[in-house]
Amino acid sequence: MNFEEGLQILDTAIFNKLNRHLKDVEIIVLKGSWQGFNYDEIANKEGYAAKYLRQDVGFKLWKLLSEALGEEVNKTNFRAAVERSHLRNNNILPIELNQESSHNIKHEFVPEYPKGSVPLNSVFYIQRNLIEERCYDTILQAGSLIRIKAPNQMGKTSLLDRIIAHSNQQNYHTVRLNFLQAETTVFSNLDKFLRWFCAYVSHKLKLPSLLNESWDEYRGSIINCTTYFEDHILAEINNNLVLALDEVDRVFQYPEISQGFFAMLRSWHEEAKTIEIWEKLRLAVVHSTENYGSLDINQSPFNVGLVVELTEFTKEQIEVLAHHHQLDYNRTQIQELMSIIGGHPYLIRLALYHLALGEITLEKLLQNASTNAGIYEEHLRHFLHTFKVNPHLTQAFIQVVTATEPISIETMQAYQLYSMGLVKRVGDKLIPSYQLYQHYFREHLAN
Predict the structure, then answer these.
(1) pLDDT tens digits, the chain, 447 residues: what are they?
(2) Three-state SS at 373
(3) What phi and psi, each to the nearest 5 degrees, are found at residue 430?
(4) What is the dihedral of CA 373, 378, 380, 382, to 10 degrees?
(5) Going by C-beta distance under 8 Å and a sequence separation of 6 or more, which residues neighbour residue 296?
C-alpha cells in the first residue's frame, strides 16, 4: 500500500466519523510520518514549527484517528492500523477461513493476558500523552541519552521496546541488554564486568570479539572499554547505535562496578559533543529507583539527557483500555476500580482481563481484591516472599501500612519499597501506594 491509498482510507474514516476531510497540515504530518521523518524533519521541510506539529497537530491527529479506526493509533503504528482497517473493510480473511461458509465463522473476542512487555502491535498499549513522541525524537539526536524511570510493572520495558522499534525503522543498529540476565559472576569486579559488556555488544552486532588483542591491563578497565567501543564497535558499524540498558538497578547492588560504569556512560554522552564518532551512540537507560548509592551524581548519567518518569494511568486512559476490552463501563465504575488499585497499569489490565472474560463481576472483584481468593493473590504473594527473606524491609513496610498518616523510614528501605511499587512519596514521607496493599499487608504482615 502506498501513501495515497493509505491517505484515502484515513480520509474516508475521518469523514464517516466527523463529516469532514483531513486538513492540509494533518496530511503533511501523515505524509512525513509515513516516510519515517520525525517532527523536526517535517517542520524543516514544510516550514512549520516542530512544537506546533508535535504538540498541537500531531497530538490531536492521532487521537482523532484512534477514534475513527477504533484502535490506539500513534505516529509509529498508524501505517499498520491503516492496513488493518483496509482488511476489515474488505472482509479479507485467511484462506482457510474463506473456504468455510460465513455462518460457520465465529469471531470471539479474546483479551490479551497482561504478562511482560505489551506487544508492539497490541491495542492494549496505552500511550502516555507526548512521552512516546519525545522519546522517538530524542533517540534520533546525536549522542542522545534517555532515562526511563518508574516502579516495577509501570510499563518501562514496553516503552523501551517501542523506542527500539522506532530506531530499527531508521535502520539504526540496536542492542538491548537486560542486566537481570547476566550471571552473578559477571559482577565480581569492574574489569570482568566491562569485558563482558563489550563482548555482549560485539556479539549482538555480529562483530568479532577482539578483547584479548586490545585489552591492556596497564590502561585501566574504563579506558580499555572506551577504546574498545570506539575502535571495534562504533568504527565498524555503518549507522548509529542505540544501546538499550534495561534493569540497571541490578548494577546498583555492586558499588565498585556502578561507580565506574555509570561514570563511563556519562563520559560517553559528553564525548558526543566534541568527538564525531561518539555521535553514533544513543543510550536508553531503564531503572526503578533513584538509589544511586555512593555514586557521584555529577559523574553519572542520571542528571543529564531526557528524563521520562512513567506515571499511573488516568481515568480517561482506563476508560479507553476498558473500551478495548469491550467493557461498557461508566465513570463511576472506573472510579470504584481505581479506589482500590489506583491507575497502576498492570493491576488495571489484570482486572480488565478477568472482567472481559466474564468470569467475575466488578463487585466481586473489588470485594475479594485484597484477599487470597482474589485475582491479585499471585501478585501479592510474590511480595510476601520478598518480605520473608528481608525482615528489615518487612518492619519498615509494617510501619507504613499501619500508620494513619505519611511517615518517614530509613532511606535505603524507602528506595526498595518504592522500586517495588508498594509506596508513594508525599514530600519526603511515604504512604501505601494503594488500598489493595494497605489492606492486604496490614493483615498478612502486621498480625
Answers:
(1) 678 888 888 888 888 877 788 888 889 988 888 887 888 888 888 888 888 888 788 888 888 888 888 877 888 778 777 877 776 666 543 433 343 333 443 346 778 899 888 988 888 998 876 889 899 999 999 999 999 998 888 999 999 999 999 999 999 999 999 999 899 999 999 999 999 999 999 999 999 999 988 898 888 999 999 999 999 999 999 999 999 999 998 898 898 898 899 999 999 999 998 999 999 999 999 988 655 444 444 545 566 789 998 989 999 999 999 999 999 888 899 999 999 999 999 999 999 999 999 889 999 999 999 999 999 999 999 899 889 888 999 999 999 999 999 999 988 888 889 888 899 989 889 999 999 999 999 998 866
(2) coil
(3) -125, 150
(4) 150
(5) 259, 263
Q: Are 36 and 170 in contact (CB under 8 A)?
A: yes
* Contact in structure between 355 and 336 (CB atoms under 8 Å): no
Structure-block grid coordinates of residue 348: 488495571
Contact call for residues 17 and 68 (beta carbons, < 8 A):
yes
Any residues with CB less than 8 A from the CB of 270 and at least 6 apart, and which?
A: none
Helices (H), 70-220: 78-89, 95-98, 131-139, 156-169, 190-204, 211-214
- Coil, strand, or helix at residue 203? helix
Phi-psi region of 138 (alpha: psi -120 to 50; beta: other; left: phi over 0): alpha
CA distance to 136, 165, 235, 275, 306, per residue, from 281 (Å):
15, 16, 11, 11, 15
CA distances from 1 to 5, 6, 32, 38, 348 (A): 6, 7, 16, 21, 36
Q: Is the distance from CB of 297 to CB of 303 less than 8 angstroms? A: yes
436 touches 426 (CB < 8 A): no
Task: Outline where 36-179 has alpha helix (H).
Answer: 39-46, 50-51, 59-69, 78-89, 95-98, 131-139, 156-169
Q: Whole-prediction pTM value?
A: 0.74
Kindly state the cell numbers that stand for 380: 501479592
Residues in the chain: 447
CA 260 to chain centroid: 26
Contact at 8 Å (CB) between 313 and 345?
yes
Q: Is 139 exposed, middle or buried (0-12, 13-18, 19+ CB in 10 A)?
A: buried
CB atoms within 10 A of CB 65: 25
